[in-house]
Records
---
Amino acid sequence: MTRLLVAVCSVLVGLAASADHHKASVVGVWHGVGVGPNGDESASTMTITKKEGKLSGKSVNEQGDERILDRIKFDGKLFHVEIDIDQNGQSGVLGVKAKLGSNGELKGNWFANDDSGTELYSGEWGAVRNLSKVVVGSWNVVAVTDDGDNEHTISITKEGYRYTGTVEGEAGSLDLENLRVKKNKLSFEFAYGDGTVKVAAAQTGPTKLAGEWTYFDSSDQDLGSGKWTANK
């Protein structure tokens, strides 16, 4: 079974499932990381699509090897994906069982079974969305304040590797500063009054962000914060 273990290490993090069930969906691009039998971490990029009600997907590991996801199951929260492998005359199944959390992340375990269904190896596995694929464009924002909901929009563009953007509301348009996108995380700030509003959020759905805004005065003292959400 040594050759089967080699196959496991090459693709073990290239697995996951995606589907729409009510409002839940994990269609899109994901960063996956799995822990191997020896404790080593391995990363991959996973792309899930849905066409005519059918889910399909592929995974590309750090070496550029691509695998097609053969079977995908989703019940609205639980994901079960399998890839059939056949290497040097040995066949088996690589898979992932994971849950979609309220934070929009997938967490669970990968497994490797032989052709009789006996589990040979397993380990921790998790994945977060790739926000860079959808972040560009206009987002409708709701910031919860003591005076009620503040509704406005933010617009984000990208030139090369650099992101820029603006926030637009009743007071006009302001430039977003220190705008950063990393995996499923978004952060930025903008001047407001005599202070600065800082926003930190994460992608929780295909086109949904959730996080928190915080207002700092000119002395960088925290004067207030609240829930921040955005939809595209």
---
Amino acid sequence: MVNVEDNSHRHPDKDSDNSSLLGKDDSTHLFSSPEKLKQLTTSMIGQANNKVRILSHHLNREIFDDEPIREAISKLARAHSRSTVELLIVDEHPLVVSTQRLLEVVRRLPSSIHLKVINKAYPYDESAMVLVDRCGVIFQKENSVYEGFATFNSPGRNKQLSEVFEQLWSHTSNSQELRQLRL
């Protein structure tokens, strides 16, 4: 069950963007627009120290081609040798035809950013998620609907969804289309 966000514990002088501290903010942030999803994603990825995992049907361009999100991913990937970004998609075709700028970041940082395609024969429920370090979670039940929740401090939920992500990651296939892009 998703709880409605309670802002009563927040300091009145703090901007709402600053209260979403990774590993500290236990509240659940609901979203129902691409703008709010971008804001939460930028904030969470921007605070990552070690690992970001993204499961998206095709790395929706409206969200993941946003400059602040690309910059946050690039910054993490360059931060230190243990930083990793794992991008897991279902359909690579929209990436290939739209030439997203995020793919340039993936090309430039291949040792830190990994892009894989889920094997089409493996069952996938159309959800989307962003998992940050061991505590941050952004979850959409349906990839194409901009509704879901984010929590900046939920190690249990992060662990549960990380297991799902790892299961999907282990069932990936090589993509001829991505190979042609040198990814």
---
Amino acid sequence: MPTTTAKTINFIVDTSLYPLEAIQAAAYTLTGRAYVRIARSGSRAASVALKLKAAGGNPTALGDEFHNELLHECLRLKVSQANRKLREYIVTKALVSAQTPSISASALEPAAEEAACPECAAEAQARAPQTPPAAPVDPELEKEIEKLLREIEKSGPAQDDPLGVAVPWEKKYGAQAKKSPSRRKRSAKKAA
């Protein structure tokens, strides 16, 4: 049962239900509006005292807000603990991918902790180099490919080049290659 004065509320929090880390985080969220004091009160309890910084506030409402925030922080702590391995894996992967390519192959191997996580094991397996399965070869398709390759070899270098892409820049523009593009456009306009 909390004890309340005009600017202060004191209560005891059971640390077997609420971890000390969650109590501290909940208290921290209220430090803008209240002074907070947390102390051990026995082996399984913590004493929390909230004193309003500004006059005219309601300490009971502040205590209720602290309890709500305490529940939020407990949930955040549980989620954080449940996702610890995944979070560490993601951060490690981001750091490894940001490093230079001189990393040894052993550094990219999954750690023993990653093997316990199914998502991590699947990711490690996907990273492993795999040889593609041999595609079945159709004899008719193989003959058609050979025929097309022979046609390409017979035609030699590109005979048909309507845009002049295969012509080197110097041959195409000659002395104009050394001029800037804006001068080339003016020279072309004068010639026309």
---
Amino acid sequence: MDAFAFFEQIYCINLDRRPERWQVVCRELDSVGILHRVERFPGIEHEHPRKGCALSHMACIEKARQDGCRNVLIFEDDLRWRVWEKDLLGRAVEVLKRDTRWELFYLGGRLQKQARVISPEVLESRLWSSHAYAVSHRAYERMAEVELPLDVWYSQTFYSYCIRPMMAVQAKGFSDIKGAYLGKKEEKFNEYYQKNTRYVEGQLSASPLRRLLVRIGMRMARLQAFLRSLPVGKSTYR
């Protein structure tokens, strides 16, 4: 079974001035057999890069809504597969088919609270990141109220699931949103959240030190979210 068949539309956001990133992400998409299904969406440029990013995501979701799609899968062009297990995604999709509560479904991201196990393959939690996620039609209407930063607003607004273990990460390199190179420090920060899902979810035993480090890491992440929101603020736009 093609697990990606569940997703009625698939977009990948890529700025016109970054053709090299499109070439790389095409290889990632082709490696899991979905390149032929993915529609490139030209990223929207804006003087505030975070707003341009949010506008690009909202445009993808609005197009899916207008086309009558019950869900849409969105990638950013810095997608990289950390692991790829076709059967794992297939089992997670079966959960999504039966469960009518989910609004966002992440293939990767940073967990922001202790997660709840929905199934062996699916967790319920708040997450950051927007490089690989699906949106249900149940979330379409509230997208008009979007605030910045996009991924933080997502985590505070929608009922979100994520795959377990997480499959998609963001590649290191120059970030158009941050205007800086995503180097080793940020890369390690991403990997910390990706690899420690099993401890954050609180379902497997962990040492007291590990639990303390996870709590410290999540508090640092919340502080980072606050700092990220300062340059642009929480401007709501329609």
